[in-house]
User: Fold Dihydrofolate reductase family protein from Streptomyces achromogenes.
Amino acid sequence: MRKLIYGMNLSLDGYIAAPGDDIGWSVPSDELFQFWSDQLQATELTLYGRKLWQTMSSYWPTGDQRPDATPAEIEFARRWRDMPKAVFSSTIDKVDWNTRLVTGDAVAEITRLKAEDGGPMDIGGATLAGAAMRAGLIDEYVLATAPVLVGGGTPFFTALDSWVNLNLVETRTFPCGVVLTRYVTRR
Assistant:
């Protein structure tokens, strides 16, 4: 059975995007960027909601070809392009870069994917992750909490029908002041 990991940068007040989908506050330091790149390398499949997919696919397919790309960005872009991905959406009809489109029941498909043998899966996008959270499918949460308050926007966590008990398995502070915490779901 595969492990499903939900991890993103978030503000201290719990948002992954400020009002207007502004993520300018969440630009990672070199060390944090390397952490996320290493996470990508250790992942077998990434699951995206439409909005995050559109953000990622607007930059990373050619991120390694930009004249100002750092070695870490070049490495991440290549990993991202090669990584198998699934995008869950009923409003787009085409995806590229080693990606398949899922238009049906997201929870049913994530449940099916989790039951397969294989390496870890990452899930990204608040709406998709929220559905997986409510269904009890998330095994691990990775929060990279930035020292900024944005006052509103898209929350990292969704409203739940019942408590989810977690065990803290890692804390780490990056030089930029971001605090990384990892929790596993207590089953």
